[in-house]
């Protein structure tokens, strides 16, 4: 066993060793909050607390997995018994156990956002409302907002105050839609994501015996990323720890980035009111990042008015300056970042996993993907259109869902005519309406179809019902994999994809195989006691986009993700890209100071992911909704103290600058942002300027096999230089080159982008 206590600083040690009673740690990024939680749980178990009685809530399932793994290395396999996961996954588990109390059965389906919107569209249509006014997206987010504030349909309808915003004025029927939606979910034995928290609250509010059971079960409740819990989540944790008072929360108000989802900094402030005996511990030392990065991040966040003041310092090295890269277009931004990454990798002998490219929105990933692919650098995209959102995957999962839960209306709609059975949309809509009007499950109608639908469609539905019945018979006898493989084969899904010989068809077929493989893995994993299909579906429906893993077995990849997804993570070198007005800060978030401050916190989160080196970039133009748009550098760039910045100069800027200097124009005024920064940089970096080189426009690397001592070369980034020496070592041929501005560098010739001039 490692002596982990000795690796902690004093306040960290106090937090880990803190006995009973509420504890809150609000501290800056990289100060060891997550590490403290991990060791605190290990310590509790060592002291004899039963892992089954520890509840630990994390931001992603992946974070939970990592934490569990670390704890396991201290206390052994007992760590597997901790109740650990996201709020959604932990409370879905409790809801399954207690489903009866709420009138659900334990095999309820979990509707994803697409299912929810599809159901809303049906309801809007059935109500005869205009779907251009009642857009499913908007209605969905209204309902979601209400649930997160714990406002149920009855309260929503009864309290017009809740509805006095402009959207409500245009959409007076939202309350009625909300009510119908809730009813339909209930009939479908389904909960959406928000219901998992909403219904947990209802469960604990209306069933005190059940609440009491869990209050006593969980001796300790711990929450990471506490700043991003919403009211509904906070109430659950507060109730659960009301008896034992052993609640430990860690977070950073400066990293609160989910206000749009109802997360609320107020929770941090309320915590001290709700738990008057709370002990507060501050962590101030950052162990993750260089001084440059920590101080730059501090300089940014200091601009926010709404924050709890705290200091963050580090004893780490100063590190290199933050590099600013300016590109002419979004495509060039992709190329410049990929090249920079490639060179850093070669020069410092790094792995792909040392790098992350972080952006504000998923749509930005394309340019980076293309550029990385061209340089043969492997990457993984977290988020975006994820594996589980692909049509073929959702199709098979819908079959599996309907096999487990025959009330699942959305699963039914997806598969009833897949493969084609000649059942039209009208028939499908009719079945849903009949079920809803008679308040019976969909299955009731489907399995007695001759009462409701005549003709060919009726016969087809009967055949479908028989097929599903044959699947149901397997549920008790076979594990998740056997059932799924059987369903894939006999439902016709695999065959249809197999028969499609196009490239896309092939890749869809492979995706279904990949899903089956992952079910096999689930069944073979000794950590999973319950190998049933229903258990697998529960895990799958709660995966967040940050949880996905790659299937090609190669783990050395650059990570591409949104900043939201990067919370809690760390990478050696980080690129924050697209730093332009209206993109970051986002146009949608500029209505108020509160919005702007949230964007600034997001920028703070991004900066503080970097350990050694941070690069930020922006483009002068980019395509936006199909139109070329001229962009302005983000105000956030200007908010970083320029003492921490190094700007890559363009040739044009260099020329203009030297003219400006000749004319002795003072900085500021009409001078562009880039030039003024470049000047500051030049002053700061003398006598050895390290500005990056902008290659000639026709830069095409030469064949370096003929390279010899004394030759003059141009390098993509370091500029012009003289070859001092060539070194041959096995297959590695290296050149030592003295560059005019960048100094002496050793380059691997198989990788170096050089031109002999
Ligand atoms: P964030 O706010 O980004 O979630 P955090 O406060 O949770 O950050 P951690 O991720 O726990 O910080 O720690 C940041 C890094 O510093 C990790 O690599 C961790 O292992 C390291 N670290 C934390 N405390 C110490 C310590 N006392 N000694 C050495 N390294 C430490
Ligand atoms: Mg953390």
TrEMBL record:
Entries under Pfam families matching the protein: PcrA_UvrD_tudor, UvrD-helicase, UvrD_C
Family the entry assigns: Belongs to the helicase family. UvrD subfamily.
Entry's Gene Ontology BP terms: recombinational repair
Listed Gene3D superfamilies: 1.10.10.160, P-loop containing nucleotide triphosphate hydrolases, PCRA, domain 4
PANTHER family for this protein: ATP-DEPENDENT DNA HELICASE SRS2, UVRD / RECB / PCRA DNA HELICASE FAMILY MEMBER
Positions bound to ATP: 27-34
Keywords, ordered alphabetically: ATP-binding, DNA-binding, Helicase, Hydrolase, Isomerase, Nucleotide-binding
UvrD-like helicase ATP-binding domain mapped to chain residues: 6-290
Region Disordered, residue ranges: 678-704
EC number: 5.6.2.4
Polar residues composition-biased segments: 691-704
Domain named UvrD-like helicase C-terminal: residues: 291-568
InterPro entries linked: DExx_box_DNA_helicase_dom_sf, DNA_helicase_UvrD-like_C, DNA_helicase_UvrD/REP, P-loop_NTPase, UvrD-like_ATP-bd
Keyword ATP-binding included in the entry's annotation: yes
GO annotations of cellular component type: cytosol; DNA helicase complex
Database matches in PROSITE patterns: UVRD_HELICASE_ATP_BIND (PS51198), UVRD_HELICASE_CTER (PS51217)
DNA-binding among keywords: yes
Enzyme category, top tier: isomerase
Protein name: DNA 3'-5' helicase
Bias (Low complexity): 678-690
Organism (species): Larkinella humicola
GO MF assignments: 3'-5' DNA helicase activity; ATP binding; ATP hydrolysis activity; DNA binding
Reaction(s) catalysed (UniProt annotation): Couples ATP hydrolysis with the unwinding of duplex DNA by translocating in the 3'-5' direction; ATP + H2O = ADP + phosphate + H(+)
